[in-house]
């Protein structure tokens, strides 16, 4: 239990939106380096950077055209090295995104592969002949709408793209492709990165027979992708062997780690997390989207955590409430809150009390809310295609707000996404000296987690209490805490079974054995103690 990542708090940076250093309206690596003191002041252990590689930016960097270079928008390899050096000097590990399931259609590998059926890289992507009537080989849909197949007239074949047409899927059945991807990972390990966040890790392999996916009778989403159960287009058992190759590579370096993004939900996500982290020869940990939904009940959080512990007892989980793909949690859960600030403080307390590794998303420490955008302000492909039913991901990607200057200190130029007044009002400079701000609450809560062995590595046991109360014990090495959260905009009262004391930055009052929780209140008690409503 000594690996640094097991109880780490990781801060996700979306590079386009963190800090612009050269006045082009887009964040960059020198800007990140400039702002690392802010990140370090939170008390976190690591930063995770969304993709910074060379890219046409059709999917904002998740379409890579050169895995071993920095896109000029973000700077140079020298800028990257300087950023890593500064992060390490501040005690921060550096994790980078790896997009290995697909590349950009501008990647030289694909340019060669699409040219003919008989060149050296002809089999580096997923190609298939059409049906006799010219239709695609099966019914697989793209996550971003339409079929997952695009016709290439030069080869007179279709290629697979689980995402945009401009993101062809790499053929990991080909050992040469695996070798090439491992070489790109080795390139960054040699430059000093401490780990990888593996994008769409369950999409690496497809069914070799290209069988049709069955329908999904439980679909309620507004898109076509969720109308199927994706048993053949992803989640394939062949993934495991490649994960083992990746682990053998990272194990050659000191104190490195990999965290996989599992694009699934429910019991399927738990099963995959268990498979991908079993033993010591696969991924170090996984995370799913279970806590990135609109569900805000004690039952949901308990079921998610217990589900992983019971069905994947040897796995290690990574939890987050927000990231670059979903509505910010303060906006998602606002119907359950007295105020955005009260919800933001409670969310920090709850997340940082959960077992496992924790991910925070930039701006979360400011209580940042989702930005409402007009159609003409959008850049995200799903939103542009399916507006207004699908709002897309731009609203959570708007620039970080630093101070009360123009564009909230993000840039001297017009930003790539707008900084609007409700978001600018939450700027970091305005919260830094306020002991009751959301920023101060995050710093205090992270410091409390670091000081409490039970919160870092303790076992977790849930208490049976009615909604909206979430409560559990965390215990380790003879120490224990009781963690209590009122997931409601109304006050709640509980009775302790024995005497205890409030500890840490609790937002509650304790009189004798009467514990009163304000709306979105929370408490840490200095021992494992029974509670009743």
TrEMBL record:
Ranges where the Glycosyl hydrolase family 13 catalytic domain occurs: 12-397
Pfam families assigned: Alpha-amylase
InterPro entries, sorted: GH (IPR017853), GH13_cat_dom (IPR006047), Glyco_hydro_b (IPR013780), O16G_dom_2 (IPR045857)
Transmembrane segments: none
Signal peptide: none
Xref: PANTHER family: ALPHA-AMYLASE FAMILY MEMBER, NEUTRAL AND BASIC AMINO ACID TRANSPORT PROTEIN RBAT
Family the entry assigns: Belongs to the glycosyl hydrolase 13 family.
Annotated protein name in UniProt: Alpha-glucosidase family protein
Organism of provenance: Paracoccus angustae
């Amino acid at each position: 239990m000594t690996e640094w990542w097991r109880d780490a708090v990781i801060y996700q940076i979306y590079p386009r939106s963190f800090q612009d250093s050269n006045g082009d309206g887009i964040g960059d690596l020198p800007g990140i380096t400039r702002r690392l003191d802010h990140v370090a002041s939170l008390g976190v252990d690591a930063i995770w950077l969304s993709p910074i590689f060379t890219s046409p930016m059709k999917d904002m960097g998740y379409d890579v055209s050169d895995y071993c270079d920095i896109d000029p928008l973000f700077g140079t390899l020298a800028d990257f090295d300087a950023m890593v050096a500064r992060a390490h000097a501040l005690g921060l590990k550096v994790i980078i995104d790896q997009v290995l399931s697909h590349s950009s259609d501008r990647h030289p590998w694909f340019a060669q592969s699409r040219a003919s059926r008989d060149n050296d890289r002809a089999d580096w992507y997923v190609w298939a002949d059409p049906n006799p009537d010219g239709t695609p080989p099966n019914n697989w849909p793209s996550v971003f709408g339409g079929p997952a197949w695009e016709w290439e007239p030069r080869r007179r074949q279709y290629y697979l793209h689980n995402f945009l047409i401009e993101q062809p899927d790499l053929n990991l059945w080909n050992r040469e492709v695996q070798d090439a991807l491992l070489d790109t990972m080795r390139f960054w390990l040699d430059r000093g990165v401490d780990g990888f966040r593996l994008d769409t890790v369950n999409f690496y392999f497809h069914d070799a027979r290209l069988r049709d996916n069955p329908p999904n009778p439980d679909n309620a989403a507004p898109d076509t992708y969720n109308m199927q159960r994706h048993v053949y287009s992803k989640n394939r058992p062949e993934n495991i062997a490649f994960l083992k190759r990746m682990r053998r590579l990272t194990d050659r370096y000191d104190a490195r780690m990999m965290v996989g993004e599992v694009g699934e939900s429910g019991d399927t996500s738990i099963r995959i997390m268990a498979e991908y982290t079993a033993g010591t020869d696969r991924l170090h940990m996984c995370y799913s989207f279970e806590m990135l939904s609109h569900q805000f009940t004690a039952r949901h959080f308990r079921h998610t955590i217990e589900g992983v512990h019971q069905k994947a007892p040897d796995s290690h989980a990574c939890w987050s409430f927000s990231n670059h793909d979903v509505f910010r949690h303060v906006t998602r859960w606002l119907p359950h809150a007295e105020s955005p600030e009260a919800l933001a403080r409670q969310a920090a307390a709850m997340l940082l009390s959960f077992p496992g590794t924790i991910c925070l998303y930039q701006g979360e420490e400011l209580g940042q809310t989702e930005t409402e955008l007009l159609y003409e302000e959008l850049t995200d492909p799903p939103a542009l295609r399916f507006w207004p039913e699908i709002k897309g991901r731009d609203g959570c990607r708007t620039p970080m707000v630093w101070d009360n200057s123009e564009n909230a200190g993000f840039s001297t130029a017009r930003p790539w996404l707008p900084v609007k007044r409700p978001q600018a009002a939450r700027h970091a400079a305005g919260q830094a000296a306020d002991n009751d701000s959301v920023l101060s609450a995050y710093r205090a809560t992270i410091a409390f987690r670091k000081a409490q062995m039970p919160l870092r590595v303790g076992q977790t046991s849930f208490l049976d209490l009615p909604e909206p109360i979430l409560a559990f014990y965390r215990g380790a090495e003879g120490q224990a805490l009781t963690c209590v959260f009122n997931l409601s905009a109304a006050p709640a009262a509980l009775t302790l079974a024995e005497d205890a004391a409030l500890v840490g930055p609790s937002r509650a009052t304790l009189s004798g054995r009467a514990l009163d929780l304000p709306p979105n209140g929370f408490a840490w008690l200095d021992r494992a103690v029974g509670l009743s409503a």
